Each structure stands twice: as C-alpha cells, then as structure tokens.
Amino acid sequence: MAALSIFCSFMTELISNAGTVTVLLPVFAAMAEELKINPLLFMIPATITSNFAFLLPVGTPANAIVYEHARLKLSDMVLPGFLAKVITVMTTVAVTYVIGDPVFGMFQYPDWINDASLANGTRV
Fold it and tell me: What residue intervals traverse the membrane (predicted)?
C-alpha cells in the first residue's frame, strides 16, 4: 500500500489528480482482487495521495500561479515540497492502517467483490 501511495503521489505531479485516479484505481482494484485483498486498502490511500502535488508548478493550477507570481525557482518548490510529500504520504498510510479496519473493515476480503464480479458483463 505504501509503494502504491508513493507512486500515485509522484504521478500526480505530472498529470491532474483526477487523471491519476482515473488511470490507477481500476489497476489497483484488479490487483487487489487477484491478491484477495480488500481493494479499499489500495484505493483509499491512492485517492488521498493523488492530491499531494507539492513539488512542481505543473502539479496544480495553484502551484503554477504561486510559482509565476512569486518568481520562484524550481528548487524553491521542490525542496519544501518533497518534505511535505514525505510527511503527508507517511501520515496517510499510517492513518489508513489505524482507522481503516474499524471504519471500512479493510483487512477482510469483502463478499461484495464476488457479487460484483459475477454481475459485471464485461468480464470474460
């Protein structure tokens, strides 16, 4: 889960958060189903970490505005942004482990996966 969250948080530096989750969540869901792991264990932290675009001006429009208006250098954003990214990703993974099971039952393989797989007409 931590590796997928890190990957997702760095991918969102180059494309939008919506694009990141649109591309990655189906992959993470299929991977979790193959591993017989609750997909929420991968998908919730990935969705949250896809919003952590702190490093580059292209990450979000707000980053670009601040970068241009304040006439920052790239290093002015990358160094503090990397620290913020490390802290937020670690916090997200830790909080997911702490409250994920009591709230979502993330450590049990859910029954609804088998039902959804049978009802999905695109499966072969």
Answer: 42-66, 78-99
Which candidate, 104, 78, 85, 89, places its Cα nearest to that of 4?
89
Residue 80's identity, in one-letter code, is: P
Q: List C-alpha distances in Å: 124 to 4, 64, 117, 118.
A: 27, 44, 10, 10
Mind listing the pLDDT tens digit for each residue in 98-116?
998 899 888 888 888 776 5
Rounded-to-integer distance, Cα 43 and Cα 66, Å: 30
Which residue type is seen at 73? K
Q: Taking the model in full, what pTM does it have? A: 0.82
CB 13 within 8 A of CB 55: yes
What is the Cα–Cα distance from 96 to 118, expressed in whole angstroms?
A: 29
CA distance 41 to 63: 29
- The string of pLDDT tens digits covering residues 19-78 is 999 999 999 999 999 999 999 999 999 999 999 999 999 989 999 999 999 999 999 999
